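LOG
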Amino acid sequence: MNLSGPFIKRPVATMLLSLAIMLLGGVSFGLLPVSPLPQMDFPVIVVSASLPGASPEVMASTVATPLERSFGAIAGVNTMSSRSSQGSTRVILQFDQDRDINGAAREVQAAINASRNLLPSGMKSMPTYKKVNPSQAPIMVLSLTSDVLSKGELYDLASTILSQSLSQVPGVGEVQIGGSSLPAVRIELEPQLLNQYGVSLDDVRNTIANANVRRPKGAVSDGDRNWQIQANDQLEKAKDYEPLIIRYQDGAALRLSHVAKVKDSVEDRYNSGFFNNDAAVLLVVNRQAGANIIETVNAIKAQLPVLQAVLPASVQLNLAMDRSPVIKATLHEAEMTLLIAVALVILVVFLFLGNWRASLIPTLAVPVSLVGTFAIMYLYGFSLNNLSLMALILATGLVVDDAIVVLENISRHIDDGIAPMKAALLGAKEVGFTLLSMNVSLVAVFLSILFMGGIVESLFREFSITLAASIVVSLVVSLTLTPMLCARWLKPHVPGTENAMQRWSMRLNERMVSGYARSLDWVLRHQRLTLFSLLVTIGVNVALYVVVPKTFMPQQDTGQLIGFVRGDDGLSFSVMQPKMEIFRKAVLADPAVESVAGFIGGNGGTNNAFMIVRLKPVSERKVSSQKVIERLRENMPKVPGGRLMLMADQDLQFGGGREQTSSQYSYILQSGDLGELRAWYPKVVAALKALPELTAIDAREGRGAQQVTLVVDRDQAKRLGVDMDMVTAVLNNAYSQRQISTIYDSLNQYQVVMEVNPKYAQDPETLNQVQVITADGQRIPLSAIAHYENSLQNDRVEHEGQFASETISFDMAPGVTVEQGTTAIEHAIAKLGLPEEVIVKMAGTGDAFAATQKSQPFMILGALVAVYLVLGILYESYIHPLTILSTLPSAGVGALLSIYLTGGEFSLISLLGLFLLIGVVKKNAILMIDLALQLERHAGLGPQESIRSACLQRLRPILMTTLAAMLGALPLMLSTAEGAEMRQPLGLTIIGGLLLSQILTLYTTPVVYLYLDRMRRRFNKWRGVRTDAALETPL
């Protein structure tokens, strides 16, 4: 049966079919979203809760623990960790990979609701959650600065105007605001004056709460008219609160201004943002899942002049960070690489065939296959990203293989004097099954990735399906358009009329075949030596896999750095700010840095800061982002009590978000015995700091933050009628920035915050000035029933799986791979001899690396099994698939050796290269084996004569397809622009593997074929079964 026959005979229908494929693909291309990496529905949910004034220990015990117990009952929770700091708790839930993220989110919300009664009554709002995508970084950061307005007023503008407007831009998801807090009226009480007038903190709180209310008041009507009732019950500014009367004393009004300073300020004094050299409020913009980053950013930029126009003239809206230029440059480079790859493979056809007409055929066939793939990508909801574009670049070498096989076979028949139409019908029929075998087995290789599960399946799903789709479209094009064009465009061969290029190509082919024939004959006379060399390559594969350095993913240069500033435990906000200034100025002074934006304080604690460093384009800075980090570390001034950790921002992050960890790798200690954990933690930190393989180690320093513990004499308190609730209420009123009333506005809601004057919150001695009321109404100082003790507390409390834990973050030293670093850690921990009660494990990227490292051999084995099964079914043979698979060890040696010799690292991208090699290298063996079987069945040749003839006859298409695949990968290997670090390992792996496998498999394949054929014949003879090759008819 000739599948190509109807298409060869109906050129109009074939051209229209190809045109339809092009149109569908072209329209789909314009609809595809753009992103750095594929959309990964990675089931991670982060829950956040806040309780102003609460210590880390209180947040952990009263907020984190109840939530963790509820979350622990949710099915499919893989890991659960929490971090509680001053006034905030953050719980990270990672679910099983096959868990539906939306269903998980509903169960998380239900668990939060179920925990309502277990949470502190003073929480102003319930915990909230958000779904985290490790492949989704913020696409833009905007800054608001002003020389006139306060940061609270800027934050109000960002919250009420900008955030709402930006959220309405198509493609925009969450808009986060940082760098300050909403405006608030702050009541700063004077304890001495309160004591003098005999006023309690609750008296002040009740006065304010009763004076500022907002309730419905109804309406009155006389039957004809209606009047809404309003009152001056809402107080909006500090000046409105100052005259409030607390009570009358000796006939005179005691007003709030007599015992407190009332001012317009902000909700949280310990929160500050900056952009370059200016104080700023920052808006961090995230995109919706699946949205086109470029279109979304362009839409935001188009909206910026409109937003600037509605802002006060003194306010400047600046672009602090924009991901789109780097993404545009990366994708543009990938697109140019794709065009270069297409041009190179077409050049291969021209050099080997010497016929410009023949070269035009793949010029049409390849674009149809690639453009048609866009339609399938759109149907599957894929995007144009680094991985899908790499798939298309590599597909160039694969889809041209199909065109080459058909074109070369038809051209050979034309050279033998057969008319083009008849040659097209005959040639297409001869290679039809060969094409089917090559492409179906190749699709099986890439689709096997979909069954790997975990990170690999999520990350490379688009890559594998895109490649498989291009192969399927290529198969259709090769069986329809390519033979039809050969029949219509190629001219009959007339001896003596060849041009110079054709004559050169013919001489080249004759010399290659002649030289190959001589070497092949020698190999066939020394088959045992050849088989031994094949066994050696298998052993070398194993040895190289062991010694080649390994990593998770190549370090990307996204043009952005993330910085974390850690102050010593207990460092105050006012002391932290100047330290942050030193680091900010040092970073901004580097010639590669374009801008710096960040936050101090907030939910991270008063001794922590976070910064986003925007680098200049690669063409301007001339060095990688990692080199910039190394230079900054060398030039960074020493700041007592503070340290700056920098890391290159990556498109793929693990561990709950970019603000969760200060480095790419984390090491966790957990234990049910808190004493054991705290005893061993500093020992582990010291052991890791002694390792030269690690750098930028971020661990809890010192003995902890200062803490004042109020020790109440419960017997004395009971005698005086004072209970613990009264004591904690007084402290809450005085020191926790308590929000005691709400101001309702037409655009937003604002808080009234009460505390003692900050000057009375600087020394534990001031606790003695706070008074409580006894049962008989007497006012007594706290010192009458309690004394305080200075102690130490953790500035954060961490849990892992509901157990107490500690985290150590770090980066690998320059030149050290992840594998080398993790091995060094394992040896160091083994020497410590940790007790069984203390469990240690890698987290974040390190945990992801460990998981994929264990599964890599099984992934490769799975791909080999898939290929064997498909080929066994197609050839109706247990033996011939083994012959085809025997070509793979040499490709593995070439790939691993190229990585080793160039000082590279074996990553998931390199693993993709191995999968591709499995598909490409076996195609050459299929070309040989398929023709050898045909010659045995139809020409009556013996096994050695048939395989020798097949090798010689298929030499030219094998060389053409291999060279086309290598040249298709060459632009990847030589790439130096944005995104090169993702493309180079793939190109290097493919070229190294193809180069060595091409040299070896031309000789090992026929020898293995003959060896397995002899085994098959002996086995069948032993069973008494006929061994005629004609009985082995493939599907």
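LOG (cont.) second protein
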Amino acid sequence: MVKRKGSNTEVDQPSTSKRARAQSGHHEEDPDVEEEEEEGDGAGEEDVMNLTQGDPNLNHPNEVKEADTGIIEAISLKNFMCHSRLEFKFGPNVNFVVGKNGSGKSAVLTGLVVGLGGKATITDRGKSIKSFIKHGQNAAEVAIRIRNRGLEAYKPDEYGEAVIVERRLAQDGATSYRLKSIKGKTISTKREELSHVLDHFNIQVDNPVSILNQDTSRNFLHSRNASDKYKFFLKATQLEQMSSDYSTIQEQREEIQATLRTKEETVPQLEKIVSEKEQRFKDLATLQELEKKVEGLKNMYAWAQVHELEKQLEPIAKAIKQEEARTPKYDQKVQESMKKVEAAEAKHQDIQQKLQELADKVQALNPKHEEAKANLKLKKDACKKTQAEHRKVLNQLKTTKRDREQVMERIDEMKDSVQQDYEAERRAREEQIRLLQEQLQKLQAQQTTTDHQIDQFAQAVTLYKEQLYNLKRDEQDIQNTTRQLQRRLQDLQSSRNNSLKRFGNFMPDLVRQINQAYQQGRFHQKPRGPLGSCISLRDPELALAVESCLKNLMFAFCANDHHDERVLEGIMKQVCPQGRRPSIIISRFHERPYDVSTNRVQHPDYPAVLDVLDIEDPVVSNFLIDQRKIECVLMIKDNKEARQVMQLQRPPRNCNEAFTAMGDQVYTNRYYSSNTDKSSYLRVSIEEEVQETQERLQRLQQDGSATRQQLAELEQDIRKNQQEQRRHQTQKMKTQESINKIQYEIRDLQSVEEPTPVDVSTLEEEVMMYDEQIKSLEEKMETIETDFNAQKEDLEEAESAYQQIDQQIRELADSADPLKDDLGRADIEISQAKQHRKHYEQKHKEHLKKIADMQKEHDKHAKKVEEETGKAFQICPERLKVRRTAKNIENEIVQIQKRIAQEEVKRGNREEVTKDYYESREQFGTIKDQIRELKRFIKSLDEIMFQRQQLYKDFRRMLALRSNHFFINMLHQRGFSGKMKFDHRVCTLSLEVQSSESNKQVTKDMRSLSGGERSFSTVCFILALWDSMESPFRCLDEFDVFMDMVNRRISMEMMMKVAQDHRHKQFIFLTPQDMSYLRDQSIMRMWRMPDPDRGTGVLPFERRVEEEDDDRRN
């Protein structure tokens, strides 16, 4: 065994993704999907070691160049079988995918077949495509990169050096393809393009030898049927396809032969018909003279029409000249009116200028006026201040004198009352204090009670105001609801004669204008709506349920595109009231109803919304399916049953919600009650709904009256409490005044001091002090009076200056009044002049418009004359002088045409007879040509098919000899002998194998051999078929599972030698065995899958280093 050197080994780690397995306590399986448990299923991660022996791009000197097209460069699996993500980059020649059973290596071959468009049954791994999606995932993806180089590349300008095929598998069984360039640009999404790619590269996905899985290999090992082996040989070499093509050609040849017989049978009858039509054609020659006369009359008729039109043009031109002659008069009137406007405006401007001059004078006086006014105010303030000071000093003087007198009186009293009884006065004062304190306590208690009552009244007012606010809000709600019901009642009463008025009184007019716009061609497709008018119920009890389901769609319109939406929106702006404009939803119209049989909800007891509606227009039904999925919503009348079906049981397939007869909405985990108890649009009985609406209006009116009465009572209560609150506050103020007064009296009594021995010296000193103050104040009074007299003189001078300037401003203002009157009259004159000018300009404009209209009529008539003249020249190039009228000529033409028609009734229409004759003659000649071509084609086809059948037999014999020769050579390498025995007559193929030289008995039944020998013989057989196969790659899955070590080694050396001799082909082998013993490893690339861990849900991946592999092999 040769040990690999570290420098010659390339270890690549493909990109992987690690995803946690989806955890779920409950999993529902679709009964239509068969699950297949893959080996190693349950692994949440994939990891692969790529062990490439030597340099894959290093070629031996004498080796054949590797393939440029068709080989698999890489494959990527995502959520496919047991792999979350798995990627391989294959080499151009030999590739080994090594892994133990359960590691998921077979998924590579399965992904290759499925990714290239193969069916699930070909893989023997599942019965449906969705069975390949990893458990717990919604979709799987397979991406395959195919080499596309060299001269035989497929569309190299579009794809580049590789074609990337991506196939996505969905859980619902849907599948999609994407063919991309090497840069990742999507070139096509069609299955046909993939077929073209596979045909171009000669890739045979369904060829069991090109991609041989382990089940096919196992069945082949155990098969005794020689017919099966022969079929295997035909399919591998594409002889079966060639035979099928020849059979198809033979069937088409029989169809052509039947067509030929049918055409030959019609020849005699067609020949007779052509002869009869030829005779009728010759009999019509006598009508040519009459037709020539008609042609001459038609020429005269054309020029007669031109002459009559030219006569009609003359009076129009004459009238235009007359009107143009009146134009200068209108121009003169306009000019005169414009001059009057200019004169009035000039007068107006002159008055304005005089007023402006007066205003400028007033503006010039304003600063002096303001200055004089400010000076006057300053002088007045100074006088007022001096007067205030004078009054203050005077008051002080009076107070001082009064105080002096009181002190003098006190001195006299003290001197006179020395002998009075002071003890009696003290006891009387204490008794008075006690009485006042009792009265004070009563007043304070009364004050506390009043405060409490004021708080109660304030709280009552606040409470009543809150109730008043709530009642006013209720009254507003009642008024809004009443207006809505009145409008609804009006719509219902109108809908007795027109059902569209149920959606609003404006709706019939809106629908009418939509129909008119459609007839005028303004819409690409006629909008539908309101959608509630386009549907009807099969069960009236479900009216509220359907309206709750469709909601605003009942009132909406649908448009085909944005152009139609803009047109419809413009019509709605003109017709619909503010705030009641229906919504517009854009959805492409489809005239054929959708087929929802596979995706709709099915329940034995309860219908879907689609089932309870009668919808004649498929556009409306398709729109509701797109917007609301009415095929997936159940109608369950009873609320309890709805909860039972949607929440307590497993909901029906394709159903997520249901509606009850009460309009309640039921989900699998939620329940929403309807906010209304009556339907608005789908009820059958209009009278019943009118009566209910009237009753609701009556109840609302009663509620409104009661609410207004409560409002009046509340407002009365608020006023009463506010009055009581103010009355108690007044009482509180009075009580507080009494309290203050009593407290003052108590303090005054308590402040009385006990009498002391009489000493009036202090009081006498106080009298002397008052005398000095009086003298000082009298002197100050004299000074203030002197200052006031001076200020009074200044004030009189300032007031005189102010009055003088103010008089000037008033005189200027008075002089402006007559000018303002003149300005008003000038405004009137301008307005009148402009009205006259407008009148004459309008007349002038109407005059010019009349001339333009007449000229337009003249041009129109002249154009008609020109057109008729052109038509006449086309009919008759030479102008004819015609004296007859066009009507007279037309009558003569009609008479002659009647005569021609009578002749044609007898002999047939000349044009039709002529056309019929030439068409039948041409048809007869075409059929004879077709018969001749078909005979020639059938003869040529028979000759070609005879040659092809002979070549097919020779080719089959050559392939059989070549395969047999290769099979014998392969057996000899093991020391075996045998042959492949073909019987093409009975379509059988048997393998005769002798296991060793010592045993001369030929073994015809391979099942009598050991497992390893049988597997080795099968490998030889497959290699022999490979030699005759043109596919760019070959794939084998666990080909050596039943071999012993010796047979396996020999088989692998044989296959490696074949691969080396066929460097332009690619080989992919899947095996659980160790392939490290192979010698020529420069042409191969090896991928090793990690061992499966069946004890856990996630495979524990770890990178294997190259040194460990080397040590293990040593």
